[in-house]
Amino acid sequence: MSAPKSAGYVTDVAYVPGFYQHLAPRAMRHVALLNRIVPPAVADGFRYLELGCGLGRTLTTLAAANPQGTFTGVDINPQHTAQIAHDIEIGALSNARIVTSDFSQLPDDLRDLDFITLHGVWSWVAPDVRADILRIASERLAPGGLLLVSYNAMPGWAHLQPIRGILRQYASLRQGDSAQRARDAVNYLAYMRDQKAKYFVDNPNAATYVDTIRGQDPRYLAHEYLNEHWTSFYFADVAGQFADAGLNFVGSLPVHTNFWDLCVAPVFHDLFRTTTNRLVTEAHKDFCANTMFRWDLYGKQPTLLPDVATRIRVADDLWFRNPKPGVQLPITVNLGVVNSTVDGGLYAALLGMLAGRGMRMSEIIADPRLSSSSDTEIAKAVDAGVGMQLFEVSTGPVLEIDRSAAATRIGMPSAFNRAILAAELFGGRGVPLASATSGSAMTLGDLDAAILSTWLDEGNDDLAAAVDALMTRRDRVINHEGQPITDPAERRSRLATACDSFRANVLPILEEQGIVVREG
Ligand SMILES: C[S@@+](CC[C@H](N)C(=O)[O-])C[C@H]1O[C@@H](n2cnc3c(N)ncnc32)[C@H](O)[C@@H]1O
């Protein structure tokens, strides 16, 4: 085996960890089903490969949440893979494996894969590396397997591309590692903007964008902007390349992007209604929505599902649930571009039915409360409801918990979750905790993570005081309206409110998801 080839990709600084729920098998399988494609079966095990898995937070969390699957991550950066090997060991993840390699020389046993994912890779690597990825997809994905690829998209990036060019050029003149050079380059960009360089005057969105990247972690900026081969792609070009490798476009994430009426303004709806070619629809949708990032799902030799009855016969192992039982219709949601209003008897019935532990599609369709709607109408309403975040999709029903008694002693059974909570506490990125009930993870904000950690370590007596002490030890402030609270009494009172909210709203979900259990 020859030394791995970075092909112009940044390797001198490690990336930042992140959990991306779209990479979960449950999410990919649901998108396949709603697009009438048979997804890989998972009940008796499956094989999952993540290419360019970075620090592996998604890979290891999904391994913890899907114990029946075998998860392999490949990354060229040994700093990344050493961290992942450590997480696998302390999390006792016997179903996860990490390989340090470029994509041209994968281990031979990585074949017949059910899922291949690559997030934050396609737009950032050299054309040769993209060719390696296409070869892997073509040769190693099993028939019926699914591949998820994310990339920077056109036309959303059109007016921002020059920013990347000037950032990289300026950074190459600076000293230090890639993170230091990225930081210097962003400061230079802010100077240009503040001094009214004409590019920024003519492109106000680019001027605003400088503030977005100024707040980002320099390690993220280095990996995002300093790679030699950075390209944003039109959907049609990516779809064409995957078609040449024998993979067909199946759909996209987030779920609402599969419903064009949730993505483009009503004035365009008649135009879209008359277009039957999905590839054309996608390209025009990106234009109407000025899409700058895509998560696309491809299938190898996908099998079409003719109707909802066949869908249910083939794969009825996803559960749908309304996580906010009190919600009242009508509801208006905005998923980026358009306001969509949800109303009507079908949704009213679904919101009520799904407010419990969740139901499978077969149970929903058979329910007498929906007898006036057809199978197709019901399935579409459920799937679009997931898109509009009215319903959640999971690999199992939530666990039944006793809400009548207050919890006192709690435990977190997963060694992996305990390790991640300790490692990510106050990291500013949220703490993803794996759930075998949902097949994915629940991400806690910093304060909720601090409350959970304190309760697990020190119990529930005087919780706010213990959280206050932890935050003081770790030099953490609590902000109110953007300002740190300096008065100790006010700080304690706000922490007490946060602890009450955690008990009432967060702990029950952690219990339902099997992440936390009551003890004693
Ligand atoms: C932007 S990061 C994304 C990491 C991860 N998927 C995430 O979203 O957190 C891209 C990753 O691809 C890896 N990578 C880049 N080129 C590679 C190659 N030729 N072979 C293997 N890994 C590569 C990098 O080391 C890096 O970890």
Could you name the key traits of this structure?
520 residues; alpha/beta; Rossmann fold; 3-stranded antiparallel β-sheet; 20 helices; globular; binds S-adenosylmethionine
CATH hierarchy: architecture of the largest domain: 3-Layer(aba) Sandwich
Q: Average pLDDT, to the nearest integer?
A: 95
CATH homologous superfamily identity of the largest domain:
Vaccinia Virus protein VP39
Q: State Rg.
A: 24 Å
> What level of helicity do the residues show?
40-55%
Q: Return residue spans where pLDDT drops below 50 for at least 5 consecutive residues.
A: none
Instruction: Walk across the major sheet and give the strand order.
Output: 3-2-1-4-5-7-6
Structural class: alpha/beta
The CATH topology of the largest domain comes to: Rossmann fold
Q: What amount of the residues lies in strands? A: 15-25%
Task: Figure out the total of helices.
Answer: 20
The end-to-end distance, rounded to whole angstroms, is 54 Å
Count of spatially separate domains = 4
The global form is globular
Number of strands: 18
Q: What small ligands are held by the chains? A: S-adenosylmethionine
Largest sheet: 7 strands, mixed
CATH class assignment of the largest domain: Alpha Beta
Outline the secondary-structure elements.
Layout: H1 25-34, E1 46-51, H2 57-65, E2 69-75, H3 78-90, E3 96-100, E4 113-118, H4 127-140, E5 141-152, H5 161-172, H6 178-194, H7 198-202, H8 204-214, H9 218-225, H10 235-244, E6 247-253, H11 269-273, H12 278-289, E7 293-300, H13 308-314, E8 319-321, E9 331-334, E10 339-342, H14 345-353, E11 359-360, H15 361-366, H16 375-387, E12 392-394, E13 409-411, H17 415-424, E14 431-435, E15 440-444, H18 446-458, H19 463-473, E16 479-480, E17 483-484, H20 488-512, E18 517-519
Parallel strand pairs: 1-2, 1-4, 2-3, 4-5
Antiparallel strand pairs: 5-7, 6-7, 8-11, 8-12, 9-10, 13-18, 14-15, 16-17
Helix pairs in contact: 5-6, 6-8, 6-9, 18-19, 18-20, 19-20
Bound molecules: S-adenosylmethionine.
